Amino acid sequence: MVEVFITDTTESIEQAVNNMFSHLEKSNKPIIKLSNKVYIKVNGIDFKKHAYTSPEVLEAVIKYLKSINAEVYVMENSTQANLTRIVFAITGYKEICEKLDVKIIYLDEEDTKTFEFNGKPSIEEDPNGYNLKTFRLPLTITEIIKNRDNITYINIPKLKTHSMAGVTLGIKNQWGYPQHADRGKDHNYNLHSKLVDLYEIIKPDITIIDGLEGTIHGHYPPTAWEDRLVKQFNILIGGRDTLAVDVVGARIFGLSIDEIPHLKIAYKRGLGEGDLNKITVIGKNLEDYKEKYEWDLLQEFPEDVKIIKGKDLLCREGCQNNPLSVLQVFANDFKDKFQGGWFLIMGKGHDEDLIEKLKSEGYTKGLIAGYCAIDEIGKEVRKEFGRRNVFFSGDCNNLADTVTAILKLSGMSALDLVPFSIEELMEIIQEAQKQGTTALITTAF
Questions:
Q1: Which pTM was predicted?
Q2: How does DSSP assign 279-327, residue by residue?
Q3: I want to staple 319 with a disulfide (CB 3.0 to 4.6 A). Which of 55, 281, 346, 394 is the partner?
Q4: Which residues pair with 280 in a beta bridge?
């Protein structure tokens, strides 16, 4: 039986972390390996409230590892449209690492090595040639892969549902490793198998899910809806089998492995224990978690943005829920600045009279998201409304282009999103560029 541990954080996060490592040590495997090097991967997708690993959990984990003489590194490559340096500065990660004398590794600033995806795509035929066959990983990750016997790798995701992958826990957290330019090209129906392809290449030694709170209806909740979308759990979920940890994490939300495609694929490939009946859960009784939470986006969007979905193909893994998630956040968290009056077109299979309908309803500008929609109708829409009024977000949704487009269409700026002055923000961006960042960021300044 595989063991997964759940520790309660109500009394003390630090004590809960220490209890977690105490459980893990009893498996007759040392926490740290011969080199004493420990690499920690947080979920630092963004600095958006409720979206990232709790700094308090990260700090407690670092303190424990330092107490057993580990040489600790904290690493991340944040989501497209963002810079890891910005996320670390705003979340407090940078301050914690400096205080505890821990080195930060900004993975978007490293050279890379190319790997191949091994799994079969979900749809065998790919007539448009959009199925990405290779991806690039930072050299720190390739170094960990080459030295698994000597280097310890600890994964600390946050307990979140995900509107594209069902949940984003240990396995999904590793999607931060491919370069930005390689993520969006296949953020479609193939995403689930490719998450597992990456997991086959690199598996954490230990995964500890930060479950102080959990998000429902996706991983990026509008702060205005936090009373509806953020639930307090006050737990950590950990173990040495990441798949088993993820299955337990999904169960906390009332979700089974059959409802989470990438977990099901990983189990079928023999990459860990996915049968809840063969997982011993220590610390909490899963029967106490009776509620089932939704992972898809709340279907509430601004009425003055016309959302047009293709009838033949529209992947929730990219071109649908990526732009809709951004739209939902900007429209609700920046109501005093957000302006509607534009359209969002996505997917394949649109009415022949779509342009005439848009004109008759008074629309003159908008965003076309993803290869399918751009190829089918992009040229005609731009011809009618003008290149400056119609934005394209290529790939299976290029999130940096999507964010840029939605900001500009809604009359906003990237400066509205960060608690920095333009001078402070540009200083961080210039430093990242000086260090060779390959991050795709918004240009809406």
A1: 0.96
A2: EEEESS-GGG-------SPPS---TTEEEEE-SSB--IIIIIHHHHHHH
A3: 346
A4: 3
Residue 1, Cβ density class (10 Å: 0-12 exposed, 13-18 middle, ≥19 buried):
exposed
Q: Which tens digit of pLDDT belongs to each residue from 364-387? A: 999 999 999 999 999 999 999 999
In the prediction, which pLDDT does 186 show?
A: 80
Mean pLDDT of 44-67: 98
- Tell me, what's the pLDDT at 134? 87
Rounded CA separation 114/132 (Å) = 12
Burial letters for 324-352: b for 16+ Cβ neighbours within 10 Å, e otherwise? bbbbbbbbbbbeeebebbbbbbbbbebee
Q: What is the pLDDT of residue 129?
A: 47
CB 164 within 8 A of CB 194: no
Residue 178, pLDDT score: 96
Q: Does domain 305-412 have CATH number 3.40.50?
A: yes
Q: Are 248 and 279 in contact (CB under 8 A)?
A: yes
2-288 under CATH 3.40.50.920, yes or no: no
The two domains 2-288 and 305-412 share their CATH topology (first three levels equal): yes
Name the phi and psi angles at 234, rounded to 5. 55, 50
Instruction: Kindly list the domain boundaries of the chain, sorted by start residue.
Output: 2-288, 305-412
